[in-house]
Write a structure and sequence with these properties.
Blueprint: H1 5-25, H2 29-53, H3 58-81, H4 87-109, H5 120-142, H6 147-178
Helix pairs in contact: 1-2, 1-3, 2-5, 3-4, 3-5, 4-6, 5-6
């Protein structure tokens, strides 16, 4: 049972994603913030358990990032729905994630020397997206506005999303054109 704990925690994140979005859309802001925080803690915990005890699996290597992305996307769309995230930002994040997923799928279909691994800039983009969502949920829960802060965060998210998209495009093109393994 313990061997499957990381995957169970990732599955928990999958269930928390629609719940967090539902909570945002139904004005249960504290519950949404709590769900998002619990999901974040489950992500840290499942990664630590998997590394510490060697409980890694191919299924887990796919489930973990999918659970993370769905949580982020559900939250971004819900925040858009209540006016707490601008359309341009949500579209930018969605398009980047779809392009990265399409690139991975295409690389797999073409049997390119492509390894699914997060890049540093991609991790930074995700961290800033988490900061944006967490701040937006906290402001909703506290019934506060901070438009200048949220615009600064949105601008930072967009910068890192674009940089990460370009970095993943470079990795994909390197594999496609030169047949170079990604690292």
């Amino acid at each position: 049972m313990m061997r499957h704990l990381p995957n169970l925690l990732s599955a928990l994140r999958l269930t928390l994603a629609p719940f967090a979005a539902w909570a945002v859309l139904n004005d249960h802001d504290s519950a949404a913030l709590a769900a998002f925080a619990a999901a974040g803690l489950s992500d840290l915990l499942d990664g630590w358990i998997a590394r510490r005890f060697g409980f890694t699996s191919i299924f887990g290597a796919w489930l973990d990032p999918i659970a993370d992305k769905l949580l982020m996307l559900f939250c971004f769309v819900a925040l858009l729905g209540v006016g707490a995230a601008p359309l341009w930002l949500v579209v930018l994040v969605l398009v980047r994630d779809l392009l990265v997923a399409a690139g991975v799928g295409l690389a797999w279909a073409l049997s390119l020397p492509f390894r699914m691994a997060p890049l540093g800039v991609g991790k930074a983009a995700t961290a800033i997206e988490i900061l944006y969502i967490g701040t937006a949920l906290l402001l909703l829960a506290l019934d506060r506005d901070a438009p200048k802060l949220m615009l600064a965060l949105a601008s930072t998210v967009s910068l890192f999303v674009v940089l990460s998209a370009l970095a993943y495009l470079y990795v994909f093109l390197r594999a496609l054109i030169f047949g170079q393994h990604t690292a």
